[in-house]
Amino acid sequence: MWKLHHDEKIWGDPWKFRPERFLDQNGVLWMPFGIGKRACLAEPFARARYFLYVATLLRNWSFCPSKDQPLRDYDPRHMENFDLQLTLRPKPYLCRIEKREWN
Q1: 25-70: per-residue pLDDT in tens?
Q2: CA-based radius of gyration for the chain
Q3: Which SUPFAM superfamilies does the annotation name (predicted)?
């Protein structure tokens, strides 16, 4: 799916932000499967839970780059940092997690 959405033969310039790609001939936003009858009923609940989970992690812990491993460029245009099997995913990387101290 990722490869299809970034194919230059189809999109011409897939890395350029062009919101008009998602408008129909009348200028109305076109979003298949994203809204209406086919939208997931639990999506608002899941988004709220995910936000609270991540906010709690970031409030209590600092996530820092590893001292042993340099930072990589995770721009998908640089495929050497990704594994492409069934899905596109970044190669594993290390980070340090430090407890935040609150006074």
Answers
A1: 888 877 655 666 777 788 889 889 999 999 999 999 999 988 888 8
A2: 19
A3: Cytochrome P450
